[in-house]
Amino acid sequence: MPVRLPWFLSGEPDILGLLDAQAKVTVEGMRAFAAWSAGGTSDDAERVRDCEHGADDARRALAHALRTALVTPLEPEDLYTMSERLDGVMNGAKDAVREAEVMGIPPDEHVREMAELLLEGVRRLDDAFGRLTKQGAKEHGPATEAADAAIKTQRRLERVYRDAASALIEVDDLREVMGRRELYRRISRLSDDVVEVAERVWYATVKEG
Q1: 128 vs 161: CA distance, rounded Å
Q2: What angle separates helix 76-103 from helix 109-135, to the nearest 10 degrees?
Q3: At what angle are helices 109-135 and 174-208 packed, to 10 degrees?
Q4: How far apart are CA 84 and CA 193, in angstroms?
Q5: What Rg value do the Cα atoms of the chain yield, rounded?
Q6: How many CA atoms lie within 13 A of 12 on its CB side?
Q7: pTM of the prediction?
Q8: Are 24 and 63 a contacting pair, CB within 8 Å?
Q9: Could you tell me the end-to-end alpha-carbon distance of the chain, in angstroms, rounded to an integer?
Q10: Of 108, 111, 112, 152, whose CB is crowded by the most CB atoms within 10 A?
């Protein structure tokens, strides 16, 4: 179990604050991803890439803080895993944009719906981290409620993905079928990362309760 923070170590890095900062960069990036998926401009795609770099910087800052901190509000392994999986969401969004550009497959209505649900899920994770920052791991109820809400958004995304895959039966162009199927799959895998982060919030806070 992590050691409790005594008054004379109050200068320790704000680990949860750093995690929350990474979440906020990710929310901004997924907002750009949602805008791109809704037929946005190349500026939206570039903003996704910029936010991916920003999220990497935030993840590295948190990893450095974990290495130097004498005490942590949650187990270091849990904090590292949440940060790493959150980073996977932003990396995956950048890769999805790049793949769509390379294949010449613009986002469609299914992609737009999935991107909106990913954005909503990441917002819920940001809410969970913010509540942990304000209330601490012991008072984990509000944080786990936000984590549950994140998981629910991704269950809705699964349904959109299945509908999208089924709709490809009606498409005659094999190249488009293959391109869209891969794009749908890539975006659906981002949903797995969101769920993993949310479940880790539960796992980490229940240990502290």
Answers
A1: 25
A2: 160
A3: 10
A4: 9
A5: 18
A6: 18
A7: 0.89
A8: no
A9: 11
A10: 111
